[in-house]
């Protein structure tokens, strides 16, 4: 591995840049709980580990070179993101029409929906072929071409995943600390609307992404 300091700085900048993972973590932290946000993070990081393993064994290269495989993953990921976005926007109708008592009842129901938070984070990450493209284009810049790539790819993938985990844990705890404000009906409605629109936008952007 070369330019380790540059690699770490680039990782941090890329991780804090908002994306689908951030939108899902925000949604689940505010609508479910801090536990739901943490489960989402674990799911996303498990997806990153799969992409790391894929890069190490060369599967990412196959995905990038195969227009068919890229298209399949792209549309699966796009449909799932749009589904989550539409589902999030649909909750706006519930937020605006429910009384506080009904909202309290809904919050109890959320306790039993936490099992899906991990799946949402995992599927959002693992079905995004742009992550595979990122690993194939970003990681090789920090590997000595005269040596093997197996171990460096593995180490860099694990470092990126660990940094992602640390950032999102901080992010979820920060959201949870200000949740009293964030969970006000008016604030929640705005956040749900923005999150839903962002998820749909990411889904459409992903669907229009071309394989190179």
Automatic annotation (TrEMBL):
Subcellular location: Cell membrane
Membrane topology note: Multi-pass membrane protein
One Pfam family in the UniProt entry: LysE
Keywords: Cell membrane, Membrane, Transmembrane, Transmembrane helix
Residue ranges of the TM segments: 41-60, 67-86, 150-175
Domain of life: Bacteria
PANTHER family tied to this protein: ARGININE EXPORTER PROTEIN ARGO (PTHR30086), ARGININE EXPORTER PROTEIN ARGO-RELATED (PTHR30086:SF20)
Protein name: Amino acid transporter LysE
């Amino acid at each position: 591995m070369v330019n380790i300091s540059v690699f770490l700085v680039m990782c941090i900048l890329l991780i804090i840049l908002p994306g689908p993972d951030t939108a899902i973590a925000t949604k689940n932290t505010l609508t479910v709980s801090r536990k739901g946000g943490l489960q989402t993070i674990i799911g996303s990081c498990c997806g990153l580990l799969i992409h790391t393993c894929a890069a190490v064994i060369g599967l990412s290269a196959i995905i990038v070179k195969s227009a068919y495989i890229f298209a399949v993953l792209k549309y699966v990921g796009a449909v799932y993101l749009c589904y989550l976005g539409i589902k999030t926007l649909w909750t706006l109708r519930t937020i605006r029409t429910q009384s506080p008592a009904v909202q309290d009842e809904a919050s109890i129901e959320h306790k039993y929906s936490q099992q899906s938070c991990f799946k949402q984070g995992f599927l959002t990450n693992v079905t995004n072929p742009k992550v595979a493209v990122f690993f194939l284009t970003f990681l090789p810049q920090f590997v000595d071409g005269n040596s093997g790539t197996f171990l460096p790819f593995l180490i860099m993938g694990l470092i990126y995943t660990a940094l992602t985990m640390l950032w999102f844990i901080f992010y979820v705890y920060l959201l949870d600390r200000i949740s009293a404000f964030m969970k006000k009906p008016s604030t929640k409605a705005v956040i749900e609307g923005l999150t839903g629109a962002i998820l749909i936008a990411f889904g459409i952007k992903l669907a229009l992404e071309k394989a190179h």
